[in-house]
Amino acid sequence: MRITMSVINVMAFSRAPIPMAVVRRELSCESYPIELRCPGTDVIMIESANYGRTDDKICDSDPAQMENIRCYLPDAYKIMSQ
């Protein structure tokens, strides 16, 4: 899975065949795509996702962009889960 959105927080976990899970938080800033992978037959399950900005410290490049930290895309989870 390749993520190329501007600012995105993804809570995902890789579920092994036995009932245990590893939870990881992945963050990608604009122009820095990430790739999510699980070993073997494990599956990535998206728990939550946000496309936007909720913090002025994460992906802090342009001071003008830091003015709005209440930016959230309600459909981000739906988009990421497809």
UniProtKB/TrEMBL annotation:
Gene Ontology terms: cellular component: extracellular space
Secretion signal span: none
GO biological process entries: signal transduction
Pfam families: SUEL_Lectin (PF02140)
Molecular function terms from GO: carbohydrate binding
InterPro entries the UniProt entry points to: Lectin_gal-bd_dom, Lectin_gal-bd_sf, Olfactomedin-like_domain
Residues of the SUEL-type lectin domain: 36-81
Top-level lineage group: Eukaryota
Classification via PANTHER family: ADHESION G PROTEIN-COUPLED RECEPTOR L3, OLFACTOMEDIN-RELATED
Protein name: SUEL-type lectin domain-containing protein
Species per Swiss-Prot/TrEMBL record: Neotoma lepida (Desert woodrat)
